Here is the input.
Amino acid sequence: MKAKKNKIGIITFQGSYNCGSLLQAYALQKYLKEKLNWDNEIINFSNAKQIDMYAVFQKNKSLKAIVKNSMCLPFYSILKRHNEDYKSFINQELILSPLSYSKSEKMEQVEDRYSCLVAGSDQIWNIKCYDADDVYFLNFATHTKKIAYAPSLGAKRILKEAKNPNTYIEYLKDFSFLSVREQNGQKWLKELTDNIEIPILPDPTLLYDKDFYTSLTKKEPIIKGKYIFYYAFHYPHETNKVLKKISKETGMPIITLDAKPWIIRGICLHGFKISPESGPKAFLNLLNFADTVITTSLHGTIFSAIFRKNFWYLKSKIYNPIDDRATFLLDQLGLKSRFIDLKLLSSSNIHNETDFSICKSNISELRIKAYNYLQKALAEN
Here is the structure.
């Protein structure tokens, strides 16, 4: 392959059937093109574990997988439809490389298409996530400039978690510009490098306003009437009990987005309703028209802030104080008051008004940091 001058290759989680992952990929790609005038494409990489993780049925490699598949079988129709919603977003909204890859050893010449490579954002540097891969550290490239834009380590300290931390030290040394998304991530990257300047930059989704996102989705609500949008990845029984009680007392149904957790985690047994549509566009619609948002998700928090929704970030049983992704974000945006212990959430306070008075200016400052970082990094290309 011959190098394409002035073209950026992005490596990120574009193959994840996860709303936050896909919307951050979409926002970063648009920002590089619209704000910085850089032609770019996302390198279409998904390893075997990622493909399996988001399949309707996972491979029957374990008893756990067999049980999950058995639970999902009666709901095949809605699972398939929801997966198609994600696939449609990827195919219609993202500009991907002409070739797709599932193994790093097949990517030796990929860098020749680009004059610069950008790694980010999302948890691409979480070395313990199920679909972790050294590709996200751009290990396949040897002679093309590398820039990291706000990757997250997903609360995993590489020096402690990695069997071979020196490998990652070498990867990081090969980057011309390093940045990170969270405070803990900054601390953990600094201990691996001599680079004392590793700025904390905003998730790409924060680079745009509400109108940018609502243009992607329907003008009419998917769900009619008032409802509570419950967006999380773990749905503990204790949380479900509290929300079921609040739903009964307020008369508002609890709406969730994705069918697989609705089935496997037994959310359906609590009377929570599943959206007929899924994927990023449905996520934006459900959040936009919700009366209240309850979340334990970073991107649930981000979009609640962008859309100025009444929302709560729950400190539930699974809360990990080392994982500062959402709590650090709340601090950045001036929204720490929206972090609430599950035991304190009730129908009497669920509508307590969210104070967004300093949020807008804080987001503006983060955008300036992001623009200056990317402009400097790309100007030296």
User: Anything to note?
Assistant: The chain is about 40% helix and 10% strand.
